[in-house]
Structure formats: structure tokens, C-alpha cells
Amino acid sequence: MSSSLQGSLMLDVAGTWLTAEDRQILRQPEVGGLILFARNIEHPRQVRELCAAIRAIRPDLLLAVDQEGGRVQRLRQGFVRLPAMRAIADNPNAEALAEHCGWLMATEVLAVGLDLSFAPVLDLDYQRSAVVGSRAFEGDAQRATLLAGAFIRGMSAAGMASTGKHFPGHGWAEADSHVAIPLDERSLEQIRASDLQPFARLSRQLAAVMPAHVIYPKVDAQPAGFSRRWLQEILRGELQFKGVIFSDDLSMAGAHVVGDAACRIEAALTAGCDMGLVCNDRAAAELALSALQRLKVVAPAGLAQMRRQAFPGVEYRQSPRWLEAIGALRAAQLIN
Length: 336
Known about the structure:
336 residues, alpha/beta, two-stranded antiparallel sheet, 10 strands
């Protein structure tokens, strides 16, 4: 393997504060990011303190969370309970509401010291995939693109880079990639005409993309996140995407097709991912880290663009934009 392989590891920690073991692993230069889960979060002040402790060790680490709205919302106590994105689509002013949601989500996430939420979901809701479902904006590609574009505008106005997921679309495959290896049997032409549309139309607005742990056998035998065909030829080549590619969690069952965590992260980076996520399994994260050290990976240049571009401070709830966004979502009965 060439020593010029680019890539980095994003991992997690077990609790609401850092252990000595956490501090040691975060000091490794091959670790480029950390993702928080619900178990790491008590309330806004505690998250700010945890982020400050992490940055005291590694100021350059990317700090991430999944804060989409609906059921995928790690930050809860002391944060706005955003609606599922699918609930926005039925409103006459859906585009404005999507932009408000993007701005609110990003403002709250940035205010506790995190850099990004992996959002928005660009999958289409065919009412086939239980794991996607109401996380998607729409089943119609054009409308999903419109609403996701508005959500991205809101995120951007708050100072957060966007991550479109799960390329090239997880909505048709019925199995849940957290526990199984989903298949999407459609042709590339069918996928191009539908699920690929939001990614294609928003490729210049998106700072990052996260591929699906789904196998599209008529396109490639490997899941999209391990496929040079999907990541290099289609995403980079055809769609001219220039941003960051994050793997989805390499601990998920949909990733096990290529072997252990060392094999998975090497396969993801070789296919074209810039950062591999290994979550909820410290032994697997250590195995992946050892692989990156052995491969002598070089940190990708583009990761810095994912760092937060603004810090709203802790009094953001007094701002006119906050009051306008909350008022609009309450009027639409999307939040309490």
C-alpha cells in the first residue's frame, strides 16, 4: 500500500467526560474527529465542557453529532425538539420551514462547541425503508432537493457545513444497514433518474457526503462506501463533487462484508473516503487506528472546511432570527 493514502479516523467516547484512555487515543494524529451520542450528553453546559476538554487536547479535531430532527436527535434536554423532516413537506410554506429548521439545528449544535451535525438526509422516502422513513424530506426527488437545499441554506447561515447522506440513496433498500447488508437491485439508470438527483443538484452546496452501506449489485458488488465506482467515478467524476467524503459507521452490520475494522477502514479510504467512522466499539476503533498507523496515512486537506465557521454564543435565544424561526415552527404546529 502506498504511503500516500489519505485518510483519518473518527471515533467516540463512552461517557460524559474523558477518561485517561480517551485522552491518549485522541492525541494520536491519525484520529481526526470525534462523534457524540446520546450517552455523552446531559445538558448544554455539560456538552460545552466536554467539547472544551477535547479541544484542550486536540484543537483541530472535528466534533460531530447526528442532530437531524425527529427520532435522530442526540441533543435533547435544553434543546429544541425539531420535527422529523418528512413532517415539514406537507406545509404550504415548507421551504421556509426547512430553512428555519436548518438554522435552528445548526445554531444549537454550534453553541455547545460542536462543529457539525451529519445532515441533511437526502434519501427519498419510498415507504419501503424503515431506517429512512420520516428522516427523508420527501419521496419525490425534485421536492426533496428543494427542501434539503433550504435546510442547507439555514445551516450555512448559522455557520455550519452540510453533509448529504446516504449517497447514492438508502430509501429503496428495505433492510436496515445497522443490522443487515441491504441490497438495492435497481439499475444505475433508475437510480440516476431518482435517488441520485438530490446529490447531483446539491453537489456544489454540500461540503460533505456520507455514502450508504448498501450494495447496488447492478452497479458494483461492494457497498457504496467501499466502491471506487460510486465514490470516484460517479460522485467525484460524474457529479464533480469536490468536498469531504465521510464513511458511515464502519461498525454497522452493512460494513462487515469486507472483514474486520482494520480491513474496513482501509477499504473505505482506498475507495475514496476521507474519514472513516468507527463507533460504539473501542476495540474496533483501536484496530482501525493501528491500521492507519501501519499504512502511514496522511490527513486529508479538506477536513478543515468542516470546522464551525461561527460561534453564536450562549444567548442566541434572544436573537430576532431565533424568535422568528421558533414562531414559524410553532404556528405550523411542528414544535411545542
